Amino acid sequence: MFISKIIISEDFLGIKEEMINNFGIKKLRFFIPQNEFLLDDARAVEKESYIAETEEKIIVLMADSYRIEAQNFLLKLLEEPPKNIKFLIVVPSKNLLLPTIKSRLICEKRKIEKEVKKLDLDLKRMDLRMLFDFLQKNENLDKNELMDQIALLAKECVKYKDFNAEELEFFYESYELAKLNSKSSLILATLLLNYYTKNEK
């Protein structure tokens, strides 16, 4: 029997294959948005969870990040799931989830064995000179490169600091601005200065 839980991992494909091997595709329902888990995704999860089942069904959510309103929408569902419904939430960092979500499920951290992209900036040691040098190297990124840098920056930032809902939302807004071909140096400077001043407090 599966126990609902959170898995901290970036290896979405590996976990998906593991779940299929362990439980069979018929018992699983996957919700894997391209980038962020939105309120519409949460509503789709709710709809799926209330489809009556005589046997256990595991609903698997995998996303690089989860919108705050989507997490709030899922709270009651996680607290009082319908009969025979279990949940698995996969996310790169537990700091991307609200405390109210984390308190409802056990949390399992998986080590990443494959090589992943890394941010070319040491946030733990960052001073204003390092920040300036990083911005100079990344001042002319195209849209996709900027979106990658914002995603990497968000993942690195939450490793070292706790962010509230409003601060997490700012990463999402920056990502959306990147899609509109906004200037990379301005977006990255704002994110990094916010992190730097938070670090100084």
UniProtKB/TrEMBL annotation:
SUPFAM superfamilies: P-loop containing nucleoside triphosphate hydrolases (SSF52540). It comes from the Bacteria. InterPro entries: P-loop_NTPase. The keyword Signal does not apply. The keyword Transmembrane does not apply. Pfam families: DNA_pol3_delta2. This is DNA polymerase III subunit delta. The lineage of its organism: Bacteria, Pseudomonadati, Campylobacterota, Epsilonproteobacteria, Campylobacterales.
